[in-house]
Amino acid sequence: MPIEAEDPVGDHRPVLTLGVFAFRPKPIINERFAELGEYLSQHLDGYRVRVSALTDTELEQAMAEGVLDFVLTNPTHYVILREYGKLSGALASMVLRDGQTPVYGIGGVIVRRADRGDLNGLRDLRGRRVAIAGKTFLGTYMAPAAELVRAGIALDSITFIESAQPVDQVITAVLEGRADAGFVRTGVLEDLEREGRLQSGDLTVIHPQQMPGFPYRLSTRLYPEWPFLAVAHVPPAVSHRVAAALLSLPASHRAAQQAGIYGFTIPADYSSVEQAMRDLRMVPFDKVPPPAWSDVWQRYRPWIVTLGAAGVLVLGLALVLAWNMRRLMLAKTHLQADRVKLRAHQRELDRLAHYDALTGVPNRRLLEERMSRAVARARRSGRLLAVCYLDLDDFKPVNDRLGHAMGDRFLIEITRRLQQGLRAEDTLARLGGDEFVILLGDLQNDTEWEGVLRRLMEQVQQPVVIEAHTATVSVSAGVTLFPLDDADPDTLLRHADQAMYRAKQAGRNRFHLFDMTEDRELQVQQEQVSRLGEALRRGEFVLYYQPQVDLRTGTVLGVEALIRWQHPQQGLLPPAQFLSQLAGTALEIELGQWVIDTALRQRACWRSDDIGLCARACVSVNIEGSLLLRPGFSQWLAELLQTHPAGMARCLELEVLESVALADVATAASVMVDCRAQGIRFALDDFGTGYSSLAYFRTLPLDQVKIDKGFVINMLDQPDDRNIVESVTFLAHAFQRPLLAEGVETPEHAALLLRLGCYLAQGYAIARPMPAQALAGWLETWQRDRPWLQWQAQAQAVTD
User: Fold this and answer.
1) Can you tell me the distance from the alpha carbon of 366 to that of 537, in angstroms, rounded to the nearest whole number?
2) CA 298 to chain centre
């Protein structure tokens, strides 16, 4: 099959052919993706990429003839092509665009003529004619068909009218009345309306769906977008270069704009597409399954009934003959059987009373009995007993995400891992929820328990896979040693629980050994938390604000809200003296909500007073993970914004610690997407102090990155810190993320940042944190003195 293309005059580079599925007329597809071929050619030294629009049959033929090197096609076609075994895998997944907004996912749209009032729901399609572009496409057939099957509508009750590609012919069939309804993929209606080939009021969507942030009309659930594939004969080095070029394609590039896409992202999981094809018995999953017993019964029912009746008759005669002999034995065995049943029943009652119904390990009641025996044995032998109280970190988000049934299976797997790491004489008990207790007896010394506990914690941290879902948790543990802690069993358990709480406060994923001094400190901390709650109710907390500026222009981009405690006796206290005491408490969430509300009110006051802040200047608020990942946070924030003047959402920026974002990436990203849909900005705070994963850096919906001030402060005399600042600056530019440096303490810091290309800054050299009423005066001084010009001159002098 010839692939038409003209080679540029004088270009003798080897040609790599990219076959693009022609879901629209070929000239349109060739024109849309021509610039993408040019873009890839520029990034592949020694190769030229040629784009060819092909139908699904032509793509398969070209694959068989070996004339294609890369393929860009729809997900269902990808699953079919994969069966040929000539693909090396997906290099990237396409991201569509709507204006300047990325569009993640593809679905189907079921349309009818606007004047067909008799077609209002899916069930109205029974006995109707439905136009489709073929049964091998995700958006134009499979997604709507799957929706019909889920609604209990048999597909054989519908007459499908197949038209060849392009999908425009489906719209034409519906408009001309040759079909009652039609299936098309998402985005086609909008494309035809933009091209002037369809009026917005001509068609009506059946079974419309609303997906937050999804810009197209939709009738089904969403599936992954088109994959960009490499054919098996392409060298891996070339595939890697193509993948790197695709993932680096900016949304503003001509190739992306002409193709109507936002860019490419890491390869998506297409298992949902494959499962839907299997459910619909689509090629290549259309083989007839082996006959079921219901089929056998339907065909041979008379014979089965006859043979069954004969068997019953023979069995009845045999039973009558055996009955007399059985009666002789029955009297003898009756009492013995009753005794066996009673013992079995007693064992079952004992199991229910002493063992956890879900995991099968001892419950609290049996744990108390075993603890009493273990304490007595340790007292007699003179050896140590370790009481370990374990609590799974972040199990609630896992349970909320996967559901309670999956959560129960997760707990069963964790219990199995804990049991495998223990001796037969040790005890593992579940107190309820995600809390466990382990008794380690006959210890020779006071450190022997540490090795056992470390191994158990490592086992718990390994990923758990349940029906294609992967979840990972860590564990925090508290330990107390008897008789070093010479207390009764109930007190020992309470001490281990308190030690576990200390492990949680210290950062989780660790263990902590109980001692009496820390117990007294915990009591003091609880008193301090109570005092902080009184301070919040009495209005003793205030917010100070530190400006954030552009070192090139002097523009004040925003201010960061920093909490202070106006203590009645001790004066103004910085957050380091009280915030850490709130970690993991309900008051931490309440205080975080107060800070957001107060900062918004202050920003509204500055706007009404017109103190000189630019309209787009934001107030930044640090947000703890306990508040961000709390269920319903985005809804709470939306309701709060309703109590403030219009437009305040675009004046709010939430700063999320890197460690918080990485603790539960999926949940954090989902919450951030919901909030950004309201207009709220997000910044990644203290970047460089955690894992700094590039994948998460690209995945999280961030508007700004803040490099940790520890690196900035020390970069003048520490080469390693300067290299980190320079590397993060380069990384931010590469991913087109604004970068703000904290800790700009001196003019020398500002000058060096200007030379490194980091232009957004915050620190004492610019301004110290100040009360809200002092900001107007500082703005006048800042604009009058214009210190950034001196820093620019200093940076230029060093460069020269």
Assistant:
1) 44
2) 48
Q: Which of 110, 106, 107, 108 is nearest to 203 (CA)?
A: 110
Which amino acid is residue 149, in one-letter code?
A: V
Cα torsion angle, 617, 622, 625, 630, sign: negative
Q: For residue 693, which phi and psi values (nearest 5 degrees)?
A: -70, 130
Q: What does the alpha-carbon distance between residue 94 and residue 227 come to, in Å, rounded to a whole number?
A: 6
Query: DSSP letter at 289?
Result: P
Structure tokens that stand for 608 in this block: 């009404």
Beta-strand relationship, 541-550 and 556-567: antiparallel
Instruction: Look at the chain and count its residues.
Output: 800
pLDDT at 5: 46
Nearest one of 757, 663, 662, 758 to 709, comparing CA atoms: 758
DSSP class of residue 633? H
- Got the DSSP string for 354-370? HB-TTT-SB-HHHHHHH
Residue 641 reports pLDDT greater than 90:
yes
Q: What is the pLDDT of residues 694-708, one digit of tens each?
A: 655 667 788 999 998
DSSP state of 290: P
Q: For residues 418 and 421, what is the distance between their CA atoms, to the nearest angstrom?
A: 5
* Burial class (CB within 10 angstroms; exposed 0-12, middle 13-18, buried 19+) of 669: middle
Q: What are the C-alpha distances in Å from 276 to residues 122, 145, 282, 335?
A: 18, 10, 9, 58
Query: DSSP label at 426?
Result: S
Alpha-helical (H) ranges within 44-187 are 56-65, 75-82, 143-150, 168-175
Separation of alpha carbons 286 and 284, rounded Å: 6
Contacts 24+ apart (CB under 8 A), 351-359: 356/429, 356/430, 358/408, 358/411, 358/412, 358/430, 359/411, 359/412, 359/415, 359/430
pLDDT of residue 606: 94
Q: Is the dihedral of CA 576, 577, 583, 587 positive or negative?
A: negative
Global pTM value: 0.44
Give Cα 214 to chain centroid, integer Å: 17
Residue 70 β-bridge partners: 18, 230
Whole-angstrom distance, CA of residue 479 vs CA of residue 468: 35
The backbone torsions φ and ψ at residue 528, rounded to the nearest 5 degrees and listed phi first, read -65, -40
Give the angle 172-178-179 at the CA atoms, nearest 5°: 85
Peptide bond into 483 cis (omega under 30): yes
What DSSP assignment string belongs to 301-323? HHHHHHHHHHHHHHHHHHHHHHH
Handedness of CA 117, 122, 126, 129 (dihedral sign): positive
Q: Tokens for 19, please give them.
A: 């076959």
Q: 278 vs 271, 274, 585, 597, 788, CA distance in Å?
A: 10, 6, 48, 50, 64
Q: What letter represents residue 77's amino acid?
A: H
| Pairing, β 384-393 against β 474-482 | antiparallel
Residue tagged 């590397």 (tokens): 727
pLDDT in tens, 721-741: 899 899 889 888 888 889 999
Encoded tokens for 251: 């949304």
- What is the dihedral angle through the alpha carbons of 173, 178, 180, 184, rounded to the nearest 10 degrees? -20
DSSP state for residue 106 in the 8-state scheme: B
The DSSP H or E segment spanning 333 is helix 293-354
Range 138-155 burial, b when 16+ CB lie within 10 A, else e: bbbbbbbbbbbeeeebee
Beta bridge partners of 770: 545
DSSP string, 263-284: EEESPP--HHHHHHHHHTT-TT
Is pLDDT larger for residue 446 or for residue 543?
543
Measured CA distances, 489 to 382, 389, 482, 483, 546 (Å): 17, 13, 10, 11, 53
- Per-residue pLDDT averaged across 390-408, rounded? 89
Between 640 and 275, name the one with better pLDDT: 640
* 480 touches 513 (CB < 8 A): yes
Residue among 88, 74, 22 nearest 51 (CA): 22
Per-residue pLDDT tens over the stretch 624-640: 888 888 889 999 999 99
* Alpha carbons 381 and 127: distance in angstroms, whole number: 83
